[in-house]
Amino acid sequence: MRTILLTTICYLFSYNLIAQSTAFISSTAATEDINQMVSTFEKVHYNPYFKTSKDEFYSLKKELLDNWSTDSISYKQFMAVGMKLCAVMSGGHSYMYWKNPHMVPEIKEYFYVPFTGKLINDNQTFVVTESKIPSIDSGAVVQSINGIDMKELFLECMSYTGGIEAFKIAYTEASLPLFLFFNDKLKAPYSIQLKGSENPISTQGMDIGELADFINSRQIDQNYTFEILNDEIALISYNSCTNYKKFKKFLKESFKTIAEQNIDKLIIDIRQNGGGDSRLNDDLLSYLTTKPYQQSSGRYWKVSEEAKKTYSSHKAYTKIFGKEFMDQYMNTPNQEVIESLDTADLTYPQKPKNFFEGKSCLLIGPGTFSSANFLADAVKTYKITTIIGAPSGEYTNDFGEQLNFTLPNSGSRVFISSTYDIGANGNATVLEPVFPDIHVEDDALTYAVEWIKK
């Protein structure tokens, strides 16, 4: 599950370092870290070159590193290159974490672009989705900032994130002010040119405190909520697969209310659910279906020394995966693959009290990711209910089971997937997201309310 990690941004306020604003690393040390990162990807990731050939990747790597022509480079330059290279090898779960401790003073002193937005019309037009300043409304089209084409800026920011196109756009939209920090060409004050306006808008941008408030206002506060719309439609907003016991209690109380008020229409919204623990999905589905189903049909495990060190250092892994499998993993030679396929291992849901017998639908979108994508995939594969919205943000067959490590010279943290997880239908060759039964691009909830009333 990937988030912007607002808590980390807030933590910067109390993170006092005595250092120059712009920190530098020697080009030699930076190159060593990049080489180690790539080498670790090749050892740990099931298929690091699934999006591009190894030759093309190494050509890009050489091109980026050749730009380090001086003896030292800024950490911003190093991080931008590291994030780009990770993204090329990533299905979305692998990435270089944006916050490097050496950059904290610069992050605190920087002024950030005061809006978010995304590209539309086949990535040709940038439209604002939320703005911090009154002179720029949501829906405004930004053509340039400080004379730099907005499309160019957004695509550069997109290159820092892996995954499929829809996820990259959604994640970049949410992270845009932060990601623009890594563009050395762009600094406050900002001159923002809007389409249809003769004079550009000038702004100093947001300081770190305003950025934290801005991002905080856009975060979802609760992992799951329940409400009744128009006295006739139950809405469960399932925003995170987090805290199994708490979710079980939440479902029990919600479906009790649904039964007591004779509600026969239910909308479940997972458009903002970035994943977590897929066991929560089984509890939810037990209220909706008695069909046997599976969320995933298994996985391929890439065996590596790095993973063995991680698994052996934490007893929790043995508890999660079982001693028998851990013994098998530890005794398997590095770089081999263990097939753990469960094509016959179906879940047989048991009807709980207040089982829902009415009409329902599931809302999905680009923010539907990881364990939430498992849920959408199972619902689609086994036709459990109608899916409304936009395609999910991840392929049904995708890479998981993150490992993380710290690069020795820069101190940057890198997260790498080590498994290839197979979707509900068991076809390991499919590379596509979950497609909705009814495609709605703009406001899926408004559409779903009208649809379910009919």
Structure description:
There is one protein chain. The protein is an alpha+beta fold. It folds into two domains: 6-218, no CATH class; 224-453, 2-enoyl-CoA Hydratase, Chain A, domain 1. Helices cover 36% and strands 20% of the residues. Strand 11 (233-238), helix 9 (244-260) and strand 12 form a beta-alpha-beta unit. Helix 2 (27-44) runs parallel beside helix 4 (75-88) and helix 12 (315-321) crosses helix 13 (323-331). Residues 1-8 and 10-20 have low confidence and may be disordered.
Instruction: Provide the gyration radius in Å.
Output: 23 Å
The helix content, as a percent range, equals: 25-40%
Q: What is the name of the CATH class of the largest domain?
A: Alpha Beta
Supply the CATH architecture of the largest domain.
Alpha-Beta Complex
Q: Outline the biggest β-sheet.
A: 6 strands, mixed
- Kindly, what is the distance between the CA atoms of the first and last residues, rounded to a whole number of angstroms? 36 Å
- Total of helices: 15
Q: Oligomeric status of the shown chains?
A: single chain
CATH fold title of the largest domain: 2-enoyl-CoA Hydratase, Chain A, domain 1
- Mean of all residue-level pLDDT scores: 92
At the fourth level of CATH, the homologous superfamily of the largest domain is 2-enoyl-CoA Hydratase, Chain A, domain 1
The SS-based structural class is: alpha+beta
Low-confidence stretches: 1-8, 10-20
- The total tally of domains equals 2
Looking at the structure, what is the overall shape? globular
Beta-strand portion reads 15-25%
Record field, number of beta strands = 19
